[in-house]
Each structure stands twice: as C-alpha cells, then as structure tokens.
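Hi V.,

You were right to ask for the full record rather than a summary. Here it is.
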Amino acid sequence: MMIFKYLIRVMLALTVFIQAANFTRVESAFEDFGVGARAPGMADTHVAIADDANALWYNPAGLVQLSESEITTQYGQVLRGLDDGSNLGTTYLGFAHPYRRGLKSIGAAYQNFKADNLFNERTLVLSYGQRLKIEPFGWKGNWFGGVNLKQLNLQYQPDRFTENALNDAGTASNRTDPLFGSGYSKSAYAADLSALYQFGQGNRYSAGLMLTNINRPNVSLNGGNNKVPSSTKLGAAYKPKWGVVSSEVRKTKRLASKTDTDFSFGAERFMKTGTMSGLILRAGYADGSRGFKALTAGLGYAYSRFRFDYAFNFPINNLSDSSGAHRLGFSFKLGEPAKTAKAKEYSEINLLSAFDWDSSTAYVLINLFAKDHRLSVADKDLLLLLLMRKHPLDDVGLEDARDDLRNILRNKTSDERDWTQVKHEFLRGLNNDDRTHVSQALELLVKGESKSALNRMALLSESAQDNNRLGGLSIIALGELAAQKYRDEKIEDCIDRVRQLVDKMPTEDVVMRAYRKLLTMRRRPTPVDDTVVEEDTTTPEEIPEAPQALVAPTNPEKAFTGKLMGEKDAISRSFASSLGYYFMRKSEGANKDERLFLLNQMKAVYEPAGMDMTLVNKEFVSLKVTPKDNPTRVAPTKTTEPVIERTGEKAKPVSPKLTPKAKPVITVKPAPAPVRSISDPELDRAWEYYRKAAAREITDHEKVEILESMLIKFGEKGAEKINKELQRIRKRLE
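Predicted structure:
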C-alpha cells in the first residue's frame, strides 16, 4: 500500500506546483507555468510583448525584435509554507541570438521543475523567429512568425518502494512496481507555432498568437493516456512612453472533454533613475474557469546591459493559505561595449557637435528617431543602409559609428544590401502616387539634395506620412539641412530646421537641448568695434521653447558674429517697432496721406537692409497705390511723433527724399488708445505662450524680442495690445 501513498504524494506535489505557478488547474504533466521573472510579474501576459530572450518560451516570433544576443536565467520557489514541507523549485536558462538583425533570430532554452526527490520535468527548446514580408487583409505593419521544437522528459526517482513493490497482502513482492515496468523516465517531442503583429504610430500596438504543444505528445510510462496539454494564447499590448499594458486570453485543453479559459491583465512601468539605469514596477491579475483567480506583482532593476527581476504570484482561491510563489531572474545582453555614439545611449549626445558632418548628423538622428518612435530593428536598419548608400564608411563623420554600420552589413545578405532591394522595402505597401514621390525623394537624398527631397515627402498622402519608416527620410533631410545652416553660421535658418525636428520628436531631450542652445546663441551679444562684451551665461533651460510663429524675427545674414550681426539685430527690432506704430495709427483713424508717409518711410529705410516687406506691400495694395506714389511732403496729422533713440551705433544716412531726420532705429511712444479684442486662435496661442514664458521669469530683453516677433507675425491684428506691452517693458528697461 505504500506505493499508492508514494504516487499520491507525487501527484499532489505536481498539482500544488501547477496551481500556484500557472494559476490554473492540472490533470496532466508539463503544464505551461511560464519562465523568467518578468512575465510572471504581469500574470504571464507576454505573448503580445515578447521583446526579450524569454520570447522563445512565450512567442518565438518576437525574437526578431532583439538587436543583440541575450542570456536570461531564473530560479523559483513555489508555495512556501505548506504543511507537508514540500520543496518545489524551478530553474530556467535561455539564450537568444539575432543572427540576421531585424530579419531572423534563433534561441535555445532549458527549463526544469523538481518536486523534492520524487520527480522532475525537463524541457529543452530550440526556437526560430523570422520577419514575414506579408500584409494579409491589407493590414500594414510588421509581421513576424516563429516556431519551437521541444524535447520533453519526465523522470521519477526510484526508491525502495518502487524497486520492491508491495503486493495486495501488504508484503514485499521483490519486484519492480508495474507502473515503472518500462523505466522511470519518458521522453517525447512537441512543437509550438506563433505569430506577432506590430502596428500603429511608433509600432506601439501589437497582437500575438501562440499555439503550444500542437501535437499533444503522450508521456505516460505504462502506455496509458497522459497527453501534454495544448493551449491557444491570444494577446494584445500597448506601449506608451512609460512602459507597457497587456492582456491575454488562454484556452487550454487538458482532458478530451475539458477546455479551460483564462483571462489575464498586466502592466509594467519603467522609471528612469540614471543615464543607464531604471526601476521597473509590474502588476497583474488573472481570472478563469473553475474558480481560478490570482494576483501577481513584480519588481525589476535595469543597469546598462543587466536586468534583475523579482516576481510574486499569489493564488486567491486555490491554495491561498500558502505564502505564494517567488521567482528571481537575471538577464544580460551580450553586445560588445560599443565605441560608437550608441554607447552614450544618445541621452548625453550634443547634437550640435554632430552637425560638423552631414553623415554624423544623419546617424545620430536615425538612432534618436528609432528610439522615440520605437522603430523595428528592420526599419532602423533600412535607414542606416540608406545612410551607407549616401556616405562611404570611411567618411570622417562616421568614425565613431563605423563598427555599428559594419555589424549591420555583416548581418545582411548581398541581396538585402542591394540598393534596389532597399528601395523596394521603402516602397512596400504604398500606392502608385506615393511610390513615385518616395522613389524620387530617395534618389534626391542620395544626391545630397535634401531640400528637394523634403518637398517630395510633403506630397505624400496622409497615410504614407504616418509611416514611421518614411518619417525617417524626413528626419535625415531636416538634419542635414540644419547641419549645413549651422556650419554656414545661418543660425536662424538652423533654428527653423531644428524646430521642425522638435515637432517630429517632441519628447526627445537631445533635440530639445540643441534647440534651446541655438536660441541662446541667437541671443548672445556680439562685440561692436573693440568693445568687450561679457559672454551670455544664460543656461538653455532658461530659454522657453518658442512656437513656430514666434521664432526668427529677422532674416539671417551669412555672418553671424561681429559688427554686422549687431547692426542687423538693431535694425530688425526698429522695423518691428515701426510696424507697430503704423498699425496703431491706422487703428486710430490716420488718413491716407499719413499712412502713405509712414509706409514709404519704412520702405526706404528697411528694404535696403533686407527686412521682409510683405506686410508693408499689403498695406500699399489696400490703399490702392504703389510705393512710387511717395508723398514725402505730407506730415503726420497727429501730434504724437515718433521718438528717435540711438542704440549706441552710428545711424545710417537716409535719402534726402525721405526726411533729413530719419534714423534707422525708431522707438514709438504712442498716445493712449483703447485695446481692441481681436479673435484669432493663432494670436491667442501666441499670447498664451508669452504669458507662460513671462511666468518662467525670462529677461525683459527676451520678452521684448518675443513681442517684436509677434508684431511681425500678426501685424495689425495685435498691434495695439502688443505695443502697449512693449511700452510698459521698455519704460522699465530705461
């Protein structure tokens, strides 16, 4: 009779373990209870995520997402505190390798469950994942497929009861128990199939499917019916900036007449604690048929290439008197410590230093864009292959990136490196018009005609413009234009291009820091003659991020430093003040002659200096005259005259046809007038920006510059209110 007690204890131990680790029921061996310590902390909702080495267990199709080799391991203790003192433990070791990055990956794993010295279950896994070049049902996105081949081995430990079984009389029979007549172990082979689909902006949405043990092998020792459970898992996940949210439904067939259905939900939150480290919080909940309920929680810490994980599983209904299951996991990425810009994690990169070369600019921005928009490895590699088509590997700007680029080439076949194939990948899934535009944009980019390439990209349909793979082309073009303007010291033009990069990557700190630094450079005082000017010590964080409407109040010159820039800046500010005075006089009812006098005065003084005369010319048209109708002999009818103030620079001589007292810098002191409320959403947004900037305690000079740029942008619409605010600030500055 002892043999029956022995078998009962074995089955009890197995049942206990499975109920805790998989939160489910058990009627057979080799239940799927998960691996690692990351997914169990999220109630095993990993089939739609599968972005680490544990993917080979949960969804081998996801292995293609890995960009470098990874090792993962785990040890777990299950249901500690049981009355019978059972010692139930699990171990796991996995390895994944993207041997053709972004296209094909392989993996191998060892998993073992042991119940005291009674029995253990061992599983060996070989995995393969591949990117699929398909778009079923017209669904655009990234498709991956995967397969597992598994060897299952079930082994019992012999003892004196199994070697010398008891007969019905309760005495020793000196024979092996019939249950183990064919041995103490049984091996079988099983197969899994899986798929993964990524879609949406930045591939933030994904869906996964996993079919496990599709052949349901029999692991009975005596020819009975002990089939391994098969299951179907369907999951969905969303990856916001802060982490991931996932859900999953599982249908598991354990007996011929029973199929259990479980639902589970999980979430993971990543909190950055340093340049190369972060804390990870996880939680999950599972519910299903036959009274199955469980709560999970997890904690992780990532540093550089290492990640440590802990997971706690607690069954609510079944075996809730125990202290639950505990797992510890460790993962390590095997990529070489790079000498490339990638080693800096791109969070500490100074984008302006990359502007020294178009090639380095493109390389850095491709990596930033891939991180910000969560590009797949294959899409990122496509952009880098375009970069290598455009610039040779021995380009000076690619010195730090050379190892990374060579590694990409090593992982590609000659066909995949072929330019025709690269173009085909960019054009995949586009309509005929979009294909034409993208094809021409690619050729223009390779030839170095970035501006023309941008114009082509602007013609794409809305759906094509939402394609992240194509968005990378615009990023390359904008970056190279910004770098060229920076090297030519055309800072205002550079600011405009970098601002467009900010619009495309609004959460990327590297680009925002470069933008702020450029704004600081634009504000830096420049020497006049031999005067020593103290260098601007304003930090980038003190400069607000101006919206597009409030940047670049002046047209840039080729030279940014020296006397010319100081004079240009002064003339630009004077022009803004003159425009403000004109629109104020217009709102107060100035007659046609006075308005023509002021318009012609601005035309004569500021047009030769390179100011934009668009608003002035529009006013001439509204008066139905041209600038040649110059009524210079007509004086203003109002008693309020412009007050001329010198800026410290010698005023330029003005044409005698204009007036002998005209000066290039004019500051207006207008008479009080009621402020009209003009409804204009764009103007309202500009004022909202100004109020927020003022609340951040920017300097009065910066406030003046913002207000002057608003005058140039909005003209008559906001002249009265803007001039009133300018007057108030200038009085304080005096």
